[in-house]
């Protein structure tokens, strides 16, 4: 059995829910065959989110880590290719912090690439009927903070783990007027199960060689 840790965030920015945590909880409640999945909710707070992630990794000893975040406006699940070493917050986090042009890890490398097969994961979600794409930016808010921070934890403390980050769209309840893309958390969870099953059996170096590049 492959042990998986999946994380989502607490609501932020005045929202009452965060679909990343909703989807993570659903996957943990009904995991893919051959995987045991534990979900952990991370605070949407710079610094504290990485402390909570480290604690969850130590507690669960996973083989695979998938961190999730909300990306309102994106039409599908987006698997992040890279996290960058900068915090540049457009809005305050849930503790009122708003770092500007600060490193996630002082003196850390400029970026960490996902150690998941991002293109194969996207293909698996599409095969499951869930819209998905590779993303080349995780932003510069707490999501990127965790995407980069997970890469740093793997590089420095947990080298036996593979992991990465994915963004999920708003839930329908967050856009009741239908003016922006949304996906039900249950649909997102269905795609994430396909993602995790694929990631568990596919090393990053055996990722698909297909075009998923973007100009913006």
Automatic annotation (TrEMBL):
Keywords for this protein: Cytoplasm, Hydrolase, Protease, Thiol protease
GO biological process, one term: proteolysis
The protein's name in its UniProt record: Pyrrolidone-carboxylate peptidase
Any one GO cellular component localisation term in the record: cytosol
EC number, UniProt record: 3.4.19.3
Keyword Hydrolase found: yes
Record-linked SUPFAM superfamilies: Pyrrolidone carboxyl peptidase (pyroglutamate aminopeptidase)
UniProt xrefs under InterPro entries: Peptidase_C15, Peptidase_C15-like, Peptidase_C15-like_sf, PGP-I_bact-type, PGPEP1_Cys_AS, PGPEP1_Glu_AS
Quaternary data: Homotetramer.
UniProt subcellular location: Cytoplasm
Reaction(s) the record says it catalyses: Release of an N-terminal pyroglutamyl group from a polypeptide, the second amino acid generally not being Pro
